[in-house]
Write a structure and sequence with these properties.
The protein has 334 residues and is of the alpha/beta class. Helix content is 37%, strand content 30%. The strands form three sheets. Strands 5-6-7-3-8-9 form a six-stranded mixed beta sheet, with helices on both faces.
Length: 334
């Protein structure tokens, strides 16, 4: 459905040629690289999280894939079409949501806007009503259907705008911060509908968001970009273990453990610390590249034997791993 090979996007930037007042008059042209070299493919029915820090190139990529911007170089195919050269034809096959920028008509009702899009996309009456019923069940559109857009709250507008982009049953949907500003109820409805529609209609979704919980709950695959390049492309759960090497093991004992006994459990190389996590329980943190959970469990059983009554291995969490990765990236830029 989506094929991107060696994508690059440069912008012309004018910088002051001199310092002081002359710099406002005399400028020199330079090029800034928003996307340096990106390649990936997305198949039918995939829900892919496209993440990165501010300025990484996420929105620029989405704009190129939807035909809003042209690329500087590279090969791009969306629904077997060049998105920039065949933008009008491609528009019938895709849906696009850009955060709080809605496509609703301010002075029309939600109903009139939906009817307008029905005509634009030439949706048969039967299909239109059927899809509207599905969207109504998920987003409770009946309550706002006859209201003017200008009288809707931000959450109601975003909900209606999101539903509008699914009205024509697009093959691919590009979602750029679709849940920003939404309350928990509407946000959950959006998440559930994305998964439902992808499973039922084999819809491909590219999901960009700074809310990592959205990515964690919806996407099975993640493409992480940094400074215009793909840094990771693969399974969501594997990303957590690749960028966060710290695992934890919680061991529960049949009686209280002393500080000395806790220290004995941290004597292995690769163990980074241990602390009480509850009544008669200890949480041991370790680097999976240096030691393994088997070694730590074996050490605990040999040392304390029957005192150990329960063991729980805690793997790195996706959201925590991405957060720490972004934090380290921001730290380097300071």
């Amino acid at each position: 459905m989506i094929k991107v090979s060696n994508l690059r996007k440069n912008y012309e930037v004018y910088k002051p040629k001199y310092s002081g007042i002359r710099g406002y008059i005399f400028k020199e042209k330079t090029e800034a690289q928003a996307i340096k070299d990106i390649s990936f493919e997305v198949g039918a029915g995939e829900i892919v999280g496209y993440i990165g820090t501010n300025g990484a190139g996420k929105s620029t990529t989405v704009k190129i894939l939807t035909g809003i911007l042209s690329s500087t170089s590279g090969d791009i195919s969306v629904c077997n079409m060049d998105p920039f050269k065949m933008r009008k034809k491609l528009a019938r096959e895709i849906g696009v949501v850009f955060g709080q920028r809605n496509q609703l008509f301010w002075d029309l009702t939600v109903k009139d806007t939906f009817e307008f899009n029905k005509s634009i996309y030439e949706i048969p009456e039967g299909e239109f009503k059927k899809q509207l019923n599905v969207l109504n069940e998920c987003f409770d559109l009946d309550k706002i259907y006859n209201k003017h857009v200008r009288r809707l709250s931000l959450g109601q507008r975003m909900k209606a705008n999101f539903a509008l982009n699914y009205l024509h049953k697009p093959k691919i949907v590009f979602l750029d911060e679709p849940t920003i500003g939404l309350d928990l109820v509407i946000k959950n409805s959006v998440r559930e509908f994305i998964k439902y529609d992808s499973q039922k209609n084999n819809t491909t979704v590219m999901f960009t968001s700074h809310d990592i919980s959205d990515i964690d709950r919806i996407c099975s695959r993640v493409i992480l970009i940094d400074e215009g390049k793909v840094k990771y492309d693969g399974d969501k759960d594997s990303l957590a273990t690749e960028f966060d090497k710290l695992y934890s093991i919680e061991i529960k004992f049949s009686k209280d453990i002393s500080k000395l006994e806790i220290e004995n459990l941290t004597s292995l190389k690769g163990v980074t610390g241990a602390q009480l996590s509850g009544e008669n329980s200890i949480l041991i943190n370790f680097n999976n590249n240096i030691t393994s959970h088997i070694s730590i469990i074996d050490n605990a059983l040999k040392t304390y034997g029957d005192m150990v009554i329960d063991i729980d291995i805690i793997r790195p969490q996706f959201e925590k791993a991405v957060y720490e990765l972004f934090q380290s990236r921001e730290g380097k830029n300071e």
